[in-house]
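Budget justification, computational time. The allocation requested in the original proposal was used primarily to generate structure tokens for proteins on the priority list. As evidence of use, we reproduce two of the resulting records. The first is shown immediately below.
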Amino acid sequence: METKDLCDRNVKVMYSFYFLFSMARGLMQGPFLDQFIFTLASETSENLGNLIVGSFESVAGITKLLVAIPIGCWLDARPTHRAAVARRAVPWGLLAVTFGVTSLWTDRLELVGLMLFIFTCFSELATCVAGAIFADSLMSKSLSERTSAYTKCQVFETLGYGVGSGLNGVAMLIFKSQDLDEWSGFQTKATLLAGFALLLPTMLALVAFKNPPHVVKDTSDESSEGSEEARCWVPYLLSMSLLLSSLGSGLIVKFLPLFFIQLHGMSPAEISLLQCANPFMMAAATKLLGSCAQAVGRGKISVFCLVGVILSLIFMSKVSTLWLLLALFIIRGSLANARFPLTWSILMDYTPSTRRGLWNSVLSVLSMSWSASAVLGGAIVDQHSYQYSFQVAAGLFAAALALFLPLLTLPLDASTSESGSEPETSTTEPETEMSAGCCVVVVDPFSTGGVLAAELLQRGVQVIALWTKESNVRHHDYPSALEPQQLLAEIDEAATLQETAAAVQQVAAPLAIICGGDSGVKMTDALSDLMGLRSNGGAVNRRDKQVQQETLKAAGLRSARSARGTSWDEV
């Protein structure tokens, strides 16, 4: 399979994975699981139902905190085995389904907790490896294409949750027509079983991932990336802001459905329809605000989302009218959801490609760290009220906003290179600095040309090896320093120059074309001229050694002494 086709296939598999996985989670980790735990807890401990719901949610959050970073580091250390790791996640998913079904059959709280622990391990392993493969498959894409792909992932995830809740809502309407629209064990368990069943096609999507052929090794030598070091604080500040907002969400997210159930008497069908409509509103807001971010700026739209969330929570703590509370509930969720892909894209722009596996894991932890604060939210609700928890959450979001504001001083909305180190300018002059993630073509990389290609790979630069017909016996003769499987692609010279250029552009848009061996001089000059890249020009006798030395001498550079003659006497 061609490199581009394989990468495009992985991107589509990622969309399918996100859609199916969110459908499953929407059913098995939504309000029906909360109500199931609340009911079992109330049978043994009165007035502690919310606390136990929060405690069980914290099991997932704490488990994620313990396993996410090791998984991310493990994936970065095994960049060529990520598809195999995705397949190894499947047994964990099957084990989670087994314990989940058993807990429903036996009504045992401890089995529910064990299921949540195993499912969280599966979820973290699956999402981290899928995210790593997804990021690798997007490395040859432009910034706008990558940002669009991240946004689509969020939209598919949100729509999957909405579709799952919608199907469940239809089932609840059927139950309602038969006077069964109550929070009984049958409806709750039927919904949870449907969620467990949807994990099976989700695991099939994991098996469908393939290793991208252009994974490059990480390197501990980052000293050459000075601009990266100058902005290394950006991911940390952004992460702290996301952590505070996630903790704020944790105080309320698991209790919002219970808020409408316990205080406003909403039925299962009404809750299911609300859970269905909310994700579609979220998806629409994500798409709309993503488009606005392209015109106004990602940083400004992120601030708008945070301010909107804060105001929504404050108003929710003050009003009691149901329709207004529902509107504020949808607005808060839509704004919080729309902010995530903007944060994701900014973080990736300011993270070197050699660390993206780790930072994707960090982002995964932070995006779900609200689980760790759920137990505190349950305690606040039990000791005070739902409205008081909304006010505390608004304070945490205000702190997140304060940490994010300094980022507006950076060019967050400028088009950046793959590593995110330096913003690109809009000038027509070609780029002169190579950064991690950009692409370079090395023509005939044998001998020292292959060593050059290996050095580029070590610095995080993607390399396409182009072999000319003139390379003859040196064709595909790589030095030991270069591992061919690390290359983005290997291309042989086509029948015409235009066909060769088309083959290169099909893989990626290169930043530069460099000659790796003497036989590649003509192709390097001609191809760089044709593709509008910096070139030495098509000067005559470019391979004449005396012309080369005289050119160096004329430029004021050190050169070898030379003489030319038709006999030894003249020399």
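The second record produced under the same allocation is shown here.
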Amino acid sequence: MGSVAQSEQKVAIVTGSTSGIGSWVAKHLHSRGYCVALCGRRDTYGQAIASSLDASGNSAIFVQTDVSSYESQANLFQTVWNKWGRLDVLIANAGCVDRDSKYNFARRNAAVNDLPPQPDTSCTDIDYKGAIYGTTLATHFMRHNPGGKGGKIIVTGSMIGIYPCQTFPEYCAAKAGVHQWVRTMGPILQKKENITINCIMPGGVETPAMPDFSTAFLPEHMTLPETLIRGYDTFINDTENTRTGECLEAAHEELISWGHPGYKSGAFAKRTEKVYEPWFEAIHGEKSELPGSMQGPPEKGPKIIAVTGATGSQGGGVVNVMKKTPGWKVRAVTRNTQSDAAKKLAAEGVEVVQASFDDEESLKKAFEGVHAIYAVTNWWEHLFQGKSQDESGEIEEVQGMNIARAAAATPTLEHYIWSTTPSAKRIFKGKLLTPHMDYKANIDARIKSELPELAAMTTYLYFGYYPQNMAFFPLIKPIEYPGNGQYIQTLPTKPDAKVLLSGDMTVNPGIWVRQVLATGSKAFGKYSNVALEKWTFQQMLDVWSEITGKKGVFVETTIDAWTKLWGPAGNELGLQFKFGEMCDPWEETEEHISPEELGIDRNEVVGFRGTIEGLKSFF
């Protein structure tokens, strides 16, 4: 092949280009400077279009081809290579609809021994097998391209390969096969051959495939030719040649990417799609080398949950419960494995590994082989280090996405649990800001938009007010008023304002995580409040007084006064309290999964009273 003269212009083959979509794409590529080989069964039409592009035949030719025949396609590809010595793009567009009825309605009264004739499967041969033949041949020739192997294959699919239309059962099945062919072949061809393969899926298009499209469809329900061209250009313009295995819907005037369908059955579905290298090598002669492929049989034994922030309040509560949960092993992820808290965990038999939220690669290493991840970030840490409220949020969002991306890159992961909060900014359209809540909610949204496969296995836990704050957080802790022996709690909120109480943080986070994991796929995409109580501030102080024997008085102040007293931390909590006065941030919606659905045992959950009783010695 090296003796063939090689064109300096890029070369494209467009199948099914004697009319309709193929002819539009061929003309468009030629206008972009490509040498174009048109092909189809109708010689007169094809020759006329090729001549209209370049009568000399130097940059446009027609090769009569039946794509359902491998020999015919092989002749097409060989002819193109012999003429131009390269192949950069294959547009596998040739197609037709059903050529007979598979329903056989006219044979309802046929005798049982009068068998129906063999179905005409030309549609499958042209639409599906034709794409397989074209991919096989394109891969062969693109391996010999000048300047190194590589190229682009773009297959024309159809939206009724996604949404079945009963008029065209065979066509729907063939196009569905095309979509899956593209998704399946894409990663391997890109990795091993630098060849990308993608799919454009139009709706109704005015082509000769069926008569009277403009009668059967409203104008706004048809795909515009210019939208189709933009779709093909999306992949042709991918100069890095990294987009592969994608299906792109060409709606009326809009291009919509169809991503991964998600894991409706959780780990079962995720395992189903995973490449098992011994099988791949047995069929294809070498390993796939795809990230996350299984090198051998899966390990049996306890599953592993990685707990970030394992030496903190939430993470520690998860570790406390999960280390006692049958079938699970805990991997504590911490910044400093030499801290006293980390050494204590190690002494208790917990695996302790180092990772930094600022280092995505360290997180990926920490997550290797895990089946579940509990992820939590700490906005307050950055605030107390001198950052502003928004700066703290920006850092938290970066760190939260580092954790999420590392989780998404973990092939063994079956469930991701993200600790988050409601957002005043989102609920009130920016009229109220609560940075320590808003930036966490930003991470929720970005997981859903940027990491859809991770989102498909994510459960979101909403945490509220920690009762422990009354013992350890100076802003919240009741203090003795000199001279009268009473204790005052001064907060910038109303005494009858209610807040979600997360209860005992040494236990409750772990209960919820354990039950979320036990619930499995039914908890995917759902939010859950931790824990069971919503109390007023007056109720909390009254119970605190009862347990401690110290008379507490609630004193309401303003956010401005509290900010002067406590600085940014006071301002932040004041904003949260105002949020709670304006609405119930933790109101359960259709996005929530209830404690009952999670199988939460209310008797196991430690509420406000139990938490304060356990802390009585600290007051």
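A brief technical remark on that second record: The first strand starts at residue 11 and ends at 14.
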